[in-house]
Design goal:
heterodimer, A: four-stranded antiparallel β-sheet, B: 270 residues, binds adenosine-5'-triphosphate, binds magnesium ion
Chain lengths: 345, 270
């Protein structure tokens, strides 16, 4: 009886330890997100299996990343967890509440921001828009005002706070959206590509804030999706790599990189050539070709170091010259290529 | 925070946003104050030219004022959620813990605010310019009828707005369908009795009809030839208000379930 209730409320205490240690050491293990055999199908002219048998557990306090190519199902997963979509199959619990039957209990405790979103009313100022959204969560007046002011400061948006939303830039609007997410002080926040389309320094500011937010309070949890490897690597405690609706791997960034194995990540620079033929060489697990003006940068994951000889002869026989060859410490991008079999871009 | 307090705050915040938005773009005042007044003036001069009973001039002013609310419901309220989805707000509304009814009520309250300005200006300017004599013998009854009418009228608005969201542009026809005949059958410009009992009964399904009829009786006395006694009309209006709001809640809940299942209604294509 007891463990069952505890499970259902999402507060899975380590009963023995908390009994022994009492309040001296508030040790507990709490699950923020619990997903079991979750699938999501979109029906339409063509049926899409956007999520296929997902299993995932995110602990309270984690900064968890979802990494995957376009159409992998990241946004779909976030929409299910933030109660905008229902699962087609399987179960998902957020902060202990079932997304199917107890959506409103979830909504009180979470928030969600997506990078490309447009929202708010153009005739209202940034401050007024933010104010309105805090009221939808019942945040007390004084608290809301203080929090909004504080966040406007942090995001360098004070001087635009009283400008009408329709007069501000896309990036400023985006910052407002992020503030909207945090202004309700959620226990769990979902960020869908939060730095999409933002300039480098703004992205850095936002990443810094995200890191600070999560470390300020141990009960806060964050789930974010991103296309930027660096972002995932820098920020996330753990990353799930998703491809075609399936979770390919879940691990820490370091753990994912270890999976690549030593000596199989290479970087080749050559004079321009058509890189398509590389794919068919046996032993090439994945590669990304990035052409620049007078060069071709080739990032590859190989099953075996010996394959490199075949690649070089293929390049040379196509009439190009290899200008440099480097063996890499595997990066998260290599791990992604290793697991998914292709690059992210 | 308990749910009632949260929903109250949320509804007020939504209405407040609408009201300050409207105050910021005052160009609507021109259309919303001057145009209706011109329409009203045309009818008044028409009646005067015919040498009709001056009581009709009062009907015209009252009808002109009440048109404001009905038009706001048909074109403002009904399209509101649809529009919110187009601009990307709707999905953010749907992840908040506020009740969907609080959102709709907030929208209605915001609409009521701008429409009231329009209605009041028609009423006051009309009375001043055309020297209309009205005597409010029973202010309490009048206020009650007005409030019940508003509840019923905006109840329809709340219902329409969830229907519009579900059926998209097809639902636009509903507004068209409801607009023109209402001018006629609701007796905006003359008493509905003149149209015969069957038509009166059908027209009474639209709450403005009964509301106007009751208000005319209260403002202009027996000469206004009401369809039913005022107290009966009050009871019917109260029923209508309740029914439309229940239907609004029902259809919005259904819409939400459906959108979560199909992934189509709340969510813009991404
Ligand atoms: N509302 C919808 N109706 C039909 N299909 C949908 C809908 N939303 C998403 N899909 C499909 O589901 C799949 C997963 O989409 P999703 O948006 O979750 O991908 P994503 O990982 O977020 O991609 P991106 O990196 O481009 O944002 C895609 O094939 C997409 O076309
Ligand atoms: Mg996405």
């Amino acid at each position: 009886m007891l463990p069952d209730t505890l499970l259902r409320t999402g507060r899975i205490w380590n009963v023995e330890q908390s009994f022994l240690l009492g309040h001296l050491i508030p040790f507990r293990v709490t699950t923020a997100i619990e997903i079991r055999s979750l699938s999501r199908v979109f029906s339409g002219r063509k049926e899409t299996l956007a999520l296929d048998d997902i299993n995932l557990t995110v602990e309270e306090g984690e900064l968890f990343g979802l990494l995957g190519p376009n159409g992998a199902g990241k946004t779909t997963l976030i929409k299910i967890l933030s109660t905008l979509l229902l699962p087609s199959n399987g179960t998902a619990h957020v902060l202990g509440h079932d997304v199917y039957s107890d959506a409103n209990s979830i909504r009180k405790r979470i928030n969600m921001v997506s990078g490309g979103e447009i929202s708010g009313y153009g005739l209202l100022t940034i401050r007024e828009n933010l104010w309105m959204f805090t009221q939808f969560y019942g945040v007390p007046r004084v608290v809301a005002k203080k929090r909004i002011d504080n966040l406007l400061d942090i995001f360098g948006l004070q001087d635009k706070a009283d400008a009408k939303l329709r007069t501000v830039s896309t990036g400023q609007r985006q910052k407002m959206n992020i503030i909207r997410g945090f202004a309700t002080d959620p226990e769990l926040i979902f960020l869908d590509e939060p730095t999409l389309g933002l300039d480098v320094s703004t992205s850095i500011d936002i990443r810094n804030y995200l890191r600070e937010w999560i470390s300020e309070c141990s009960s806060r949890t964050m789930m974010l999706t991103t296309h930027y490897m660096k972002e995932a690597e820098e920020l996330c405690d753990r990353v799930a790599i998703i491809d075609r609706g399936r979770i390919v791997a879940i691990d820490t960034p370091a753990g994912l990189k270890r999976r690549v194995g030593r000596g199989s990540s290479f970087l080749i620079e050559a004079t321009p050539f058509n890189p398509e033929s590389i794919q068919s060489i046996p032993g090439v697990r994945a590669f990304v070709a990035r052409p620049s003006e007078d060069h071709m940068h080739l990032r590859m994951i190989l099953d075996d170091e010996s394959v490199i000889a075949d690649i070089i002869s293929e390049i040379v026989s196509s009439g190009a010259q290899v200008t440099s060859l480097n063996k890499n410490e595997p990066t998260l991008e290599d791990a992604f290529m290793h697991l998914v079999g292709r690059g992210l871009v | 925070m308990n749910d009632w307090a949260l929903n109250f705050k949320a509804g007020i915040a939504r209405a407040h946003a609408r009201a300050i938005g409207a105050m910021r773009e005052p160009s609507w005042v021109v259309f919303d104050v001057i145009l209706p007044l011109l329409g009203v003036a045309a009818y008044i001069y028409y009646y005067r030219a015919l040498g009709a009973d001056p009581i009709f001039e009062g009907f015209v002013i009252l009808g002109g004022a009440m048109t404001a609310f009905w038009l706001n419901v048909l074109w403002g309220m009904a399209a509101q959620l649809y529009w919110e989805r187009e601009v990307g707000n709707f999905q953010l509304f749907m992840i908040t813990p506020m009740s969907r009814m609080a959102l709709l009520a907030g929208m209605a309250l915001g609409g009521l605010f701008t429409s009231s300005i329009r209605a009041l200006s028609t009423l006051i300017l009309g009375i001043l310019i055309f020297q209309i004599k009205i005597s409010v013998a029973e202010p309490l009854a009048l206020a009650t009828i007005f409030i019940l009418t508003m509840l019923a009228v905006y109840g329809i608005g709340m219902m329409l707005s969830s229907l519009f969201l579900m059926y998209g542009r097809d639902a636009w026809n509903i507004s068209n369908l409801l607009q023109e005949p209402v001018y006629l059958v609701s007796g905006f410009y003359f008493p509905i009795r003149e149209l015969g009992l069957t038509i009166s009964a059908v027209a009474s399904l639209i709450p403005v009809t009964l509301g106007l009829d009751a208000m005319r009786q209260l403002l202009f006395g027996p000469a206004s030839q009401g369809i039913l006694p005022v107290w009966v009309e009050a009871i019917i209006l109260a029923f209508q208000a309740a029914i439309f709001m229940i239907l609004a809640k029902f259809s919005l809940d259904r819409m939400e379930q459906r959108s979560r299942r199909e992934g189509r209604l709340t969510l813009r294509w991404q």
